[in-house]
Amino acid sequence: MKILYEDSNILVIDKPSGIAVHADGRTKEKTLTDWILKNYPRMKNVGEDEVYEYKNRKIEIKKPGIVHRLDRDTSGVLVLAKNEKAYQFLKQQFQNREIRKIYVAIVSGNVKNERGVINKPIGRSPKDFRRYLAGRGARGEMREAITEYRVLKRFEEGSLRKISSRFTLKGSGTNKKFYEAPPIKYTFVEVRPKTGRTHQIRVHMKYINHPVVCDELYNPDNPCPKGLKRMALHARSIEFKDLKGNVVKVESKIPKEFEKIVK
Asked: Which residues of the chain have pLDDT under 50?
């Protein structure tokens, strides 16, 4: 686990894609929490653990020093509190929306506007308990969610090309028909969430019909760019105040697989 910043109170790491921040009580896969407890055992009782019910049994989730989280397949900067004082201090900044977060993402399609603001409350999906939803059809508590974005680059993969399709004509056997397939369009965007809802960026980009590519939950039917084998969402930077009141900005490099695709 790469450490991007550390002082006596705060730790910022570069979380890889494919690792969950904490356990869900249902699987035994290794998580970031396991790494924290091994390398920073004093953080064991920092913060607030989570308790929920699953199949009529209570499950306690350990979240040592975890002030915020990134989805399992999202990579990038993640802030951890090394003691209770730092935890409460950072938590207050998140609640007051004083912390600035910047993400980058590759999304499906050609985003028309150079900049935009998505201001749409988020609720639960009525069809899949894992998913959240903005707009019509959302259920349960609707929580305010605001996301700003700007286009960094638009690009295409492939070009007009002939593709063969077999079909059968009555009484004349099987034939081939050729047709032209247009190039696949993508957009590289910078995203600034102003609120911190679960799956917020993924849900809001889906809402404007430009879901994050390679997102199996919100974009299962659109193709992934060639060579990309992970969800294309990365926490690029975070800006917060340390306990002395100094502004700290920590950045994570854009993943190499993103750079290869959008160059």
From this structure: none
DSSP structure string for 208-261: TT-PBTT-TTT-SSSPPPTT--S--EEEEEEEEE-TTS-EEEEE-PPPHHHHHH
Residue whose entry in the numeric block shows the structure tokens 């894609």: 17
**How many C-beta neighbours within 10 Å does residue 3 have?**
10
Angstrom distances, CA of residue 85 to CA of 9, 68, 91: 8, 16, 10
What domains appear along the chain, each with residue ranges and CATH number? 1-96 (3.30.2350.10), 101-236 (3.30.2350.10)
The tens digit of pLDDT for each residue in 54-103 reads 667 776 777 899 999 999 999 999 999 999 999 999 999 999 999 999 99
Distance CA 245, CA 251 (A): 19
Task: Say which residue the tokens 């590519």 belong to.
Answer: 213
Side chain identity, residue 7: D
SS3 168: strand
Q: How far apart are CA 242 and CA 149, in angstroms?
A: 27
How far apart, in whole angstroms, are the C-alpha atoms of residue 161 and residue 72? 36
Q: What are phi and psi of 20, to 5 degrees?
A: -75, 150
Q: Is 71 annotated as catalytic?
A: yes
Which amino acid is it at 183?
P
- Tell me the residue length of the chain: 263
Q: Of 71, 128, 221, 242, which is the active-site residue?
A: 71
| C-alpha to C-alpha distance for 97 and 224, rounded to whole angstroms | 33
